[in-house]
Amino acid sequence: MGLRTIADMDVRGRRVLVRADLNVPIRDGIVTDATRIERFAEGMKPLLVQGARVVLLTHLGRPGGQRRDGMSVGQLVQPLARALGRPVRFCEYTCGPKAEEEAGALPDGEVLLCENVRFEPGEEANDPALARALARLGDIYVNDAFSCAHRAHASTEGIARLIPSVAGPLMVEELDALAAALEAPRRPSVAIVGGAKVSSKIPVLRNLVAKVDRIIIGGGMANTFLFADGHPMGRSLHEADQVDTVADIRARAARSGCEILLPVDVVTARDFTAGAAHRRVPADGCAEDEMILDAGPESLRRFSDALQSSATILWNGPLGAFEIPPFDRATVALAQEAARLTRRGDVTSVAGGGDTVAALNAAGVSEDFTYVSAAGGAFLEWLEGRTLPGVAALMTTQDAA
């Protein structure tokens, strides 16, 4: 993408203001999963060795522009210090005279964590005054929070227009992985798109059919496509009002030469409960009192064949109701096949989205994929082909540094 990165900068003795995403789960004041902190810390260690004076901004939860004790980022000081292997100072203010004083007094190679940026009322409104106050904390701004890049906030977009701004290590890693999956993929490429509703992913589907060679559609979304073909749905989740949308997506796919793969057999049940009695039927065989809850074994075989004949796999959304066995079988089996192909070096595999990450974790294969994005909303907007404000702001400041 041509972004200038922190690796291009001389950071010794300079205040490096880093927007991170350290929004981790906390219970009773204890971080229950420090993975996000640990990944971020690895990218910061080289800067500290070079003598950067690192000032950190992050959010924690959704405090709504006011102070909430349970959402203070002071709770992150110890796990962050452990991950960095050095002490972390904490400022009880996000910005202002006290924060500026502490940032100015920070020795080379040390870290200052400022209070939750979302305690500030102007953060989510991208208030210019707040952006200016935050910018006074650093000489260089680093956005290392791709997961927040779809939000035009003061700490993600406003600052970048005020001081020299660059992309951080995690931001670069994410953008490179996503570009490899969609912007310049190894061919043939296949996208797996699942989830509940076509209506929630219309922009995603319209963008993908123009960029990949095949799309596998699963979950409730597949039901809507099958309904558009005249198949009975029984009590299955589907959107009867999206038939015209399905026709439009199919027409776009035909024009761009993208093949759409749908289930040819499905798993149905009368009850949506763990271990419920179920049966495999053709895609047009759902009874009036049944629900389609997963793709069937023949569908899985065809989907696996599509993966085996591809060089790039992009995955967003499960194939069925993966949270409740036995309706997780197609998702788990296809995830394991994608992981096997990745381990062999046959494919580049990129996945993202909350349900997708959970499904890969449940299948025990998230570590085997080439890249798994935890970005959520930013990942989805990227799939839609939208410009992310946090990235766009970095692009406009390339000459400033």
Automatic annotation (TrEMBL):
Catalytic activity: (2R)-3-phosphoglycerate + ATP = (2R)-3-phospho-glyceroyl phosphate + ADP
Listed GO biological process terms: gluconeogenesis; glycolytic process
Entry's Gene Ontology cellular component terms: cytosol
Keywords on record: ATP-binding, Cytoplasm, Glycolysis, Kinase, Nucleotide-binding, Transferase
Signal sequence annotation: none
Pathway this chain belongs to: Carbohydrate degradation; glycolysis; pyruvate from D-glyceraldehyde 3-phosphate: step 2/5
Complex formation: Monomer.
Protein name: Phosphoglycerate kinase
Originating gene: pgk
